[in-house]
């Protein structure tokens, strides 16, 4: 056989092998979490808060962390929507295409997207020192909303950018102001895409530990106020895994299973939304 | 009534403009905030002294970051070495060889890999990689290791940066104009020769940018590394030694930092250093990628 043919075949099989390795790493991770987490699951895990001595292997569950994470990611997502939706609408409807502000804002979101979450945590901590807030649900919400802001904005920007110019022109031709166009035409046309962006950001927010370790604190109780410390699922996993007791470590696996299931659900829902969106887009 | 709608439009416009400007300034705000807080430690010692000293004794007021910086470099280095060949081969396969259906089928899986929280990666590392190194890899080289090591951190990080490198490089490969490939194929080159000599050459800057983006992600990743790297404040001398990367240091000491003088300032300085390094990498690779994007249009 031709030497070139041999080289072609060698590299083609290397490529297939690499793709296989990368995809199977995902499968192995999911299987590991399921195999170790599922047997340790029980109803108490998701319906009870930790009782006394929980971290020594006694009764209880991690309801505090589940609720805490939902509050925290929910609050942060809400805050991030309030900032990123107007910004993205401004970039796509108001600002002149290709203006310096547009380029600079997109670039800065790209760069922010690469900033590690621990830095957001540290920055959130400096904001809290500045405001005089202690480690609390509020502190966590601030740090996580900053963390997911670039993720959400970039995802929204990508969808809104695809809206055809003619649609805006049609709206202007009917006498609508830009504000009305942004709110009633652009937002509506991009709604499934916007929801996907929100879900992706929520998923990132609920799974992140490094940004909340300084800012949200940890507590065995479900927070009833913004100024209370809140437990989060990733930190609960981390702390339970750090104990020397196998029973508690098993609970860490179960908690990791719960977190993974939440992430999987979010990812599947957002996939369905994306599919719907591409079906209805005006071409 | 007639003026209400234009007025609303004007107000909304101003409000959105202010939000846009503010949010594009967050990067500067972060650097400024962290700098303000790290000034008190910079007043006692110079930055170079802090970065290159190996003495880490917070209680004595000695904050040498060198072991942690080396820990980060080791772990990141191992991750990048593992990730580069696997990611490039996969990206080439997906963009040049694979059927469209395979591409559509793998994309969500790789996205999912990107969506898994880092703490879950950490749990997986503790359950799979750490025992593997302890029971098989270290004994194979005649070494004793707890398994919590540079290698464990590197493997976990490599998997965590797969998605970003693949995603960005597939984009870069598909930005290479199709005519260039056709010209090469028409001259009788095989598909692999075309990839090697034509596509790769055209895509090189973008591919390097993709790798740098992956590298900077690995550089700042915290929880997974904290869980598997061993956390011993010593410069590692082999991949089977434990390491204590900078992000892990920051995350691990949130409890004590307010009770020891200057400790919080030292940790916030560490975050500032991390931010600056990552910003540097990110800005360079984003500039390169923006150029690549422009070429397509």
Describe the model.
Chain A is mostly helical. Chain A folds into 2 domains: 3-40; 58-280, MetI-like fold. Chain A has helices at 3-37, 43-47, 63-94, 100-113, 117-131, 137-161, 165-173, 178-189, 191-207, 212-215, 233-242, 246-280. The relative contact order of chain A is 0.15. The mean pLDDT of chain A is 90. Chain B has 297 residues and is mainly alpha-helical. Chain B has one domain (63-296): MetI-like (MetI-like fold, Orthogonal Bundle). Chain B is 77% helix and 1% strand. Chain B has 12 helices and 2 strands, in the order αααββααααααααα. In chain B, strands 1-2 form a two-stranded antiparallel sheet. The longest helix of chain B is centred in the last third of the chain and has 34 residues, at 263-296. Chain B is globular and about 70 Å long. In chain B, 48% of the residues are buried. The model of chain B has no long low-confidence stretch (mean pLDDT 91). At the A-B interface, helix 1, helix 3, helix 4, helix 5 and helix 6 of A face helix 1, helix 2, helix 4, helix 5 and helix 6 of B.
């Amino acid at each position: 056989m031709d030497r070139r043919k041999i080289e072609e075949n060698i590299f083609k099989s290397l490529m297939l092998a690499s793709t296989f390795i990368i995809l199977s790493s995902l499968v192995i991770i999911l299987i590991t979490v399921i195999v170790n987490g599922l047997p340790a699951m029980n109803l108490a895990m998701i319906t009870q808060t930790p009782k006394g001595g929980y971290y020594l292997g006694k009764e209880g569950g991690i309801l505090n962390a589940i609720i805490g994470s939902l509050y925290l990611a929910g609050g942060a997502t809400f805050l991030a929507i309030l900032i990123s939706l107007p910004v993205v609408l401004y970039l796509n409807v108001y600002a002149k295409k290709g203006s310096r502000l547009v380029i600079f804002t997109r670039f800065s979101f790209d760069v922010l997207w690469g900033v590690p979450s621990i830095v957001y945590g540290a920055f959130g901590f400096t904001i809290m020192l500045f405001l005089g807030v202690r480690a609390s649900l509020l502190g966590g919400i601030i740090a996580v909303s900053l963390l997911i802001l670039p993720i959400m904005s970039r995802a929204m920007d990508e969808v809104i950018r695809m809206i055809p110019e003619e649609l805006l022109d049609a709206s202007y031709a009917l006498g609508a102001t830009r504000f009305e166009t942004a709110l009633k035409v652009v937002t509506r046309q991009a709604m499934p895409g916007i929801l996907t962006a929100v879900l992706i950001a929520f998923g990132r927010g609920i799974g992140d530990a490094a940004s909340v370790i300084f800012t949200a604190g940890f507590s065995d109780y479900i927070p009833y106020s913004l100024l209370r410390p809140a437990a989060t699922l990733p930190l609960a996993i981390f702390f339970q895994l750090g104990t020397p007791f196998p029973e508690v470590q098993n609970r860490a696996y179960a908690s990791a299973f719960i977190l993974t299931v939440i992430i999987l659900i979010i990812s599947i829902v957002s996939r369905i939304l994306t599919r719907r969106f591409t079906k209805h887009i005006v071409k | 009534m007639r003026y209400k709608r234009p007025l609303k439009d004007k107000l909304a416009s101003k409000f959105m403009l202010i939000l846009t400007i503010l949010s594009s300034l967050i990067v500067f705000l972060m650097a400024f905030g962290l700098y303000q807080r790290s000034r008190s430690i910079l007043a006692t010692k110079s930055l170079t002294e802090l970065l290159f000293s190996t003495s880490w004794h917070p209680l004595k007021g000695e904050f040498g970051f060198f072991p942690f910086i080396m820990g980060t470099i080791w772990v990141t280095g191992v991750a990048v070495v593992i990730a580069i060949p696997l990611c490039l081969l996969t990206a080439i396969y997906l963009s040049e060889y694979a059927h469209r259906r395979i591409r559509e089928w793998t994309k969500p899986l790789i996205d999912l890999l990107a969506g898994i929280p880092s703490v879950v990666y950490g749990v997986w590392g503790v359950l799979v990689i750490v025992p593997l190194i302890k029971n098989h890899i270290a004994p194979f080289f005649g070494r004793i290791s707890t398994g919590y090591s540079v290698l464990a951190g590197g493997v976990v990080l490599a998997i965590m940066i797969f998605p970003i490198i693949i995603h960005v490089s597939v984009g870069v490969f598909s930005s290479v104009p199709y005519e260039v490939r056709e010209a090469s194929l028409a001259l009788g080159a095989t598909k692999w020769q075309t990839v090697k000599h034509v596509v790769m050459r055209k895509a090189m800057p973008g591919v390097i940018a993709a790798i740098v983006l992956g590298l900077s992600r690995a550089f700042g990743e915290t929880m997974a590394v904290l869980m598997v790297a061993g956390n011993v404040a010593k410069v590692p001398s082999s991949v089977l030694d434990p390491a204590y990367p900078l992000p892990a240091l920051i995350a691990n000491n949130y409890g004590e930092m307010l009770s020891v003088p200057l400790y919080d300032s030292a940790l916030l300085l560490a975050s500032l250093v991390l931010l600056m390094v990552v910003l540097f990498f990110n800005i360079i690779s984003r500039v390169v990628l923006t150029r690549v994007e422009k070429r397509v249009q």
